[in-house]
Write a structure and sequence with these properties.
109 residues, alpha/beta, Rossmann fold, two-stranded parallel sheet, 5 helices
Length: 109
């Protein structure tokens, strides 16, 4: 909800969903559908883009590449932290985006 005023004013909002393997969520709903519906109900023109991330793909870099390729001028994302040991093993999208951001990023935790 922190970004709603900015998202409403945007000509286009892409909701990028990354999964390690493609599957539907609870009750057969496409991942991201609930968020897209919420945004649409609040006046945001949103499209959902489903992406499958390979086992070794860096999702943080994939997000930044998608933002660059689409000409985005802002990346809005939730920040998520893991326990330190898990972060070392699994890496972290939040950490990668913060280290390598090439455009303004709005994060909420």
């Amino acid at each position: 909800t922190d970004a709603l005023p900015l998202l409403r004013a945007s000509a286009r909002v892409t909701l990028a969903v990354y999964q390690r393997r493609r599957h539907n969520g609870a009750h057969g709903v496409q991942p991201g559908a609930d968020i897209a519906l919420y945004l649409a109900r609040h006046g945001v023109k949103v499209e959902v883009q489903q992406n499958t991330a390979g086992p070794n793909e860096d999702v943080g870099n994939a997000l930044l590449s998608l933002a660059a390729d689409s000409g985005a001028d802002l990346l809005v994302m939730g920040a998520y932290g893991h326990q330190r040991w898990r972060e070392l093993v699994l890496g972290g999208v939040t950490r990668r985006v913060l280290q390598s951001m090439t455009l303004p990023v709005l994060m909420a935790h």
